[in-house]
Write a structure and sequence with these properties.
Layout: H1 3-6, H2 19-25, E1 30-33, H3 51-55, E2 63-65, E3 71-73, H4 83-87, E4 95-98
Antiparallel strand pairs: 1-4, 2-3
The chain binds iron/sulfur cluster (2 copies).
One iron/sulfur cluster binds near residues 49, 52, 71, 89 and 90.
């Protein structure tokens, strides 16, 4: 959240470094899951993974998990930080952040 503090033109708005303000004011992109690639959804034998969930800074809000730690992204809370994509253990990544447009 440092960009808004130092931006000389105000092109990036300052947002308080608190969860509520970040969830309400930040939308850099949206995480999109490819279930065909995700280990936790693999058929016929899912493998419990959930690494992306543990990397998410807003667990239980931006992302939740179910059986086999299958991740679900919640579009209204995901800020698009990309930490889930960075952490994904499948190569190429089974979860990717796409731009909002
Ligand atoms: S992009 Fe960030 S906020 Fe969104 S699900 Fe991934 S880790 Fe969570
Ligand atoms: S880290 Fe990748 S493979 Fe593992 S649950 Fe998340 S998206 Fe699926």
């Amino acid at each position: 959240m440092k960009c808004g503090d130092v931006c000389p033109t105000g092109a990036i708005a300052r947002i308080e470094p608190e969860e509520e303000a970040i969830l309400a004011g930040v939308q850099m992109g949206l995480a999109r899951l490819n279930k065909q690639m995700c280990y936790s959804f693999a058929e016929p034998a899912p493998r419990t993974c959930g690494v992306c969930y543990r990397a998410c800074p807003f667990p239980g809000k931006a992302m939740t998990i179910g059986l086999y730690e299958q991740p679900t992204v919640h579009a209204d809370q995901c800020v698009g930080c990309g930490l889930c994509e960075q952490a994904c253990v499948h190569l190429p990544q089974a979860i990717r952040v796409i731009p909002i447009s």
